[in-house]
Amino acid sequence: MKYLKLRLILLSLASGLLFSLAWPERGFPALLFIALIPLLRMEELISSNRERFNRFSVFFYSYPGFLLWNVLTTWWIVNSTGEGAAMAVVLNSMFMSIVFAFFSGTRRRLDSRPAGYLALVCYWVMFEYLHLNWDLNWPWLNLGNGFSSSYHWVQWYEYTGAFGGTVWVLVVNVLIFTLLRRLPVGKSIRDTGYGIFRISYLASVRSTLICIILLVFLPIAFSYIIYYTYHEKSNPVHAVIVQPNIDPYSEQYSLPPMQVVGRIMNLAGPAIDSTTNILVTPESALQQEMWENQIETFESVLLVRQIITKYPNINIIVGGSTYYAFKPGEKIPHTARKFTQENAWYNRYNAAIMVSRYPTLQFYHKSKLTPGVEVLPSYGPFRWLEKYAIDLGGIVGSLGTDSVRKVYKTVNMPPVAACICYESIFGEFFAEFVRNGAQVMCIITNDGWWGNTPGHRQHFAFAHLRAIETRRSILRSANTGISAWIDQRGDAHEQTKYWVPAVIKATVNANNKMTFYTLHGDYIAFWLSWLGGLLYFGSLGVWLIYRRSRLHSHKVAAPDLRSTPDQP
Question: 520 burial class (0-12, 13-18, 19+ CB within 10 angstroms)?
Fold first, then answer.
């Protein structure tokens, strides 16, 4: 029994190691196609020895593998907070193990491997879909993101989104595992010569190779065909992208507005000319506490306005921390805070501000908030959780959001939109900007919190997928990290180095065509989630019927002692 338990733990850890070695930005993504196989073997061993294990064994034995994967790929969160890193790693590993345990339970109740493995695909997709759409969202390790550095393999994401990659990985793992189980081994091969076992063995090998070719290489080949045949239509937008490299730990929240804007313009000034359409600056570039009700009175905004005076046709996207005081009669959201000295409420935002020659500034408020930093279930009876918010400087705790993915009105250029930092991980969310009319996309971010670690490189790699899914050029401005412009095929150009002030002068093409994914979003996740729900409740129904029939059969078989004649 001890040997079996050790074997289960080693199998679990093997999967965790394979997932880690496959993960961007320096991993080999082909390992994703076999990374789940040790865990599937672990689950099979537990299921075939039910008398030795309880119903929670799959959860407990899968947890070490998922924990290893999370630790090795997202350890860099510790650079901002040890407590936050521990919470992210422990909880996400737990969620993954719960999914695997639900799959095992469904397979056991249905007593069917095909139905059980279909449940695994559906349940995992449901989990990833949930991770995109609740307050504790953490889709960093969604399987479809595993191809972000090898984006040439998944050009077909314009039809499926990243969930196509998730299903691809799961199905290939399941089918390879199923085929490997059928391969004859041992003496039955060596001792039978050209007998039936030898023929069966060769047929199984051929079937395995054919499945690998069809399920792995054909999608990759199709992707390369798309890549080399895709051509952008000329619709130039002239852009300047700034990476000011303001230290988020020691400078960002203490430098005066004149110095912050001055540093940005010292970089951007030589690159801007009369043909420049747009200047993109990073998230939280303006850290003056600006009230949107009186936005034009703040020094930071007045300094940016001076650029418009010199270049009236330029559009400027700048990140900032803003506040809004609600007027009497306005709806008060649950994220609002009460003024201490008066009966009034205000909200706080991580904003992307469009400054142009139009008299009114345009605001977009970050709406996919970073859990633990910008959002907590801190309203009503849960407000006490607010004290556990991770403090990265600036605004801390639950922020306000926008319900609409806003597209800016621009001067002398096609419509543009900006998503902020963490939002660039969310495929369908990103596509909503495009569906609302954006022909060029911007990503503004501050990746300095994580240090020179895989964190900022992974974050940058995800932008390849967003460009492919929507076929939009992306202008990416990082305070520090990697700034670049990304074309509609996902290729990145003029990437900056970490912790180096830089400016990029780029010409990208706008695009007004909608991809299938842009129009339909995460339809794969939606329908597989429904199917997963049917499988789960169906398996419960089958189990209840089986249990009831067994109880009934026991009652029928039991003797009726009341009718037994008395013994002499």
Answer: middle
- The model's pLDDT over 133-182, given as tens digits with 9 standing for 90+, comes to 988 889 999 999 999 999 999 999 999 999 999 999 999 999 889 888 87
Specify the residue for token string 């919470």: 87
Q: Please give the residue range of the domain that contains residue 452.
A: 236-520
In CATH, what number is assigned to the domain containing residue 261?
A: 3.60.110.10
Rounded Cα–Cα distance for residues 478 and 482 (Å): 6
Is 503 strand, coil or helix?
A: strand
Instruction: Find the helix or strand (DSSP H, E) in which 316 lies.
Output: strand 315-325
pLDDT at 393 over 50: no
Count CB-CB contacts under 10 A for residue 135: 11
Instruction: Classify residue 234 as exposed, middle or buried by CB count within 10 Å of its CB (0-12, 13-18, 19+).
Output: exposed
Question: Structural domain tally of the chain?
Answer: 2
Strands 315-325 and 278-280: parallel
- Do 247 and 102 lie in a common domain? no
- Yes or no: say if 504 and 527 are a contact pair by the CB < 8 Å rule: no
Cβ atoms within 10 Å, residue 296: 11
Count of residues making up the chain: 568
- 92 in Cβ contact with 99 (< 8 Å): no
Looking at the DSSP assignment, which residues form a beta bridge with residue 425? none
Tokens encoding 24 = 């961007």
| Same domain for 495 and 538 | no
